[in-house]
């Protein structure tokens, strides 16, 4: 049996088992089973990827046919899995980081009762299965199936605390906003089927050049609509910050490290189509750049630490989308990889803080926590340094590569670089602001401070491993001028072998070094400003609703996206629904039904009163009239 | 002059008189007699046509009609007497309890 099948179906099996019997097994067995299945899946995934690496670079593609989904005369779609360098990287991220987050959740969720505990692990395992389906798909139907399944798991996990209305609402919001994007994805799949008569990647992507320019643009834009929904790109980003209602491990796994990167993965997977349409690529790049900048500005004023990381995730996803949008697929995917490590780490560390403070998330009531929780503090600083792009961390290398490509790549534009650079500056500021507000300065809430405690080892170990990973993963993609050892680029090279202009820096070493110096200086200056603002006794946090300026109010309210959607879509929809209810449903439909019934009753009353009146002679008269009528008809028609 | 047409015309006249009686009279006994008249107009038509066409079946059928009419009169008169005993009234226009 192919090891990929174990990778894919083992998490599904344990998910089903835990959902059915986990509550009776008890917490330890349910958690052990869930963690073990993901660890075994990781081992098999590593085995598969090593097997793939042993093949010659040009033939690194393994197709596994599981069974026929549809076998019609003119149209065949199988449940086919494709293992190539791109999906190989993704399955390692999903199972590897997924395992660490499972481990963390064992400690984080221990206060739940056995039933909820088993339900949680069943859902998370189901998510791992769904995400693996998505990344291993070998045709558009399977990738769409995985795409929808991760949406369902995300919905289930955001609304995991089902007693909370806000959690239920957030789950619905995520699901509905994603529907908008999925509509585009589905349309793109229909267009692809119409153009190629097949949904297999092998039949579509190598022959994408057969598409007319207009069709390529349409398919590209519709695919990106799906990608923007899943990867929380503006204007479809509104669901992701609310998704933080779910348990923190879920935020780390689904809404930072894996699921939300599916859009970037999709664009990279379908790059052959996007490369045909400069317009589609431009839309991708500008959406990414604007999202990266705007979300970073919003993150600068939020006070809920999970929300800061949520907007940061939107922003970092914007960088990945910017990367793939300027044709620097490898750079975008490298940022996906580094971000998976450091953002999972940041969320888990935020969860550790939240755990220590009994659910407190408001950074205005924290401060000085480094004495109480040194491990969490140290690991979160590592994560934040990667996020901010402190030199020599993984985030520094991956973000620099994207920005360099935005300036000098095959589809470069100075505006894209500028937005990316400003966003990076904001990133440095809000990362510093959060770290300094939470861990340094004086404790602002002494009661909470006194009760704070370091988290248990099952939560600490993943933090340490992720922190080491966050730093180490940067070595896989060092800048080209430092070394010719480029494992990440070389690994993905077969996937992007079809690109004409290999995005190798057309930039001089002086420019690269100058940009690096610029970023380093920016990070240092903004970090210093954040240190000065947020470690003092009177830290510069305005209270709720206290707006220091119009700009602050704009950012505090997240550019009023929710309010605008509420006004334009929700209110209009509610009004329209109310009209449908009052006039169409109650008036037309109910009116028709009730009218038919009333007419039948009136006719019945008439017949009973006037015709069926008990007068024998009248009945006899009807009889005689009927007989005359029949006789008359017989006389007329007897021939 | 007593051809089949004459007998059919007579049967029609008898039937019309009977039907008129059923529709206009309120006394059940008279209505019964009118119904008998309609039966017998039918019998007359049957025997006349049977003779005219040279078939025996019409004659045979008349006996059935006479027998059934006798049975019907026996049941009908019984019902009328029973109603008269309970209601002290046999005006058919007043008898409408079973209309529902």
Question: How would you describe this structure to a colleague?
Answer:
The complex is a heterodimer of chains A (639) and B (100). By secondary structure, chain A is mainly alpha-helical. Chain A is built from 25 helices and two strands. Chain A has a two-stranded antiparallel ribbon with strand order 1-2. The longest helix of chain A has 51 residues, at 561-611. Chain B is an all-alpha fold. In chain B, α1 packs antiparallel against α2 and α2 packs antiparallel against α3. The model of chain B has no long low-confidence stretch (mean pLDDT 89). Chain A binds chain B through residues 608, 612-617, 620-621, 624, and chain B through 19, 22-24, 26, 92-93, 95-100.
What keywords describe this structure?
heterodimer; A: 639 residues; mainly alpha; two-stranded antiparallel ribbon; 25 helices; 2 strands; 72% helix; 3% strand; globular; B: 100 residues; Helix Hairpins; 3 helices
Task: Give a summary of the structure in a few sentences.
The complex is a heterodimer of chains A (639) and B (100). By secondary structure, chain A is an all-alpha fold.
CATH architecture of chain B: Orthogonal Bundle
Order of helices and strands of chain B: HHH
Q: Might you state the CATH topology name of chain B?
A: Helix Hairpins
- As a percent range, the share of helical residues of chain B equals over 70%
What is the number of E strands of chain A?
A: 2
- Quick one: how many beta strands of chain B? 0
List strands and helices in order, with pairings.
The complex is a heterodimer of chains A (639) and B (100).
Chain A: H1 3-25, H2 27-54, E1 62-71, E2 76-83, H3 85-108, H4 114-136, H5 140-158, H6 165-196, H7 201-204, H8 213-230, H9 239-242, H10 248-257, H11 262-269, H12 271-274, H13 278-299, H14 305-325, H15 329-356, H16 374-388, H17 394-408, H18 414-439, H19 446-451, H20 457-472, H21 487-492, H22 509-534, H23 550-556, H24 561-611, H25 616-637
Antiparallel strand pairs in A: 1-2
Chain B: H1 4-24, H2 28-53, H3 57-87
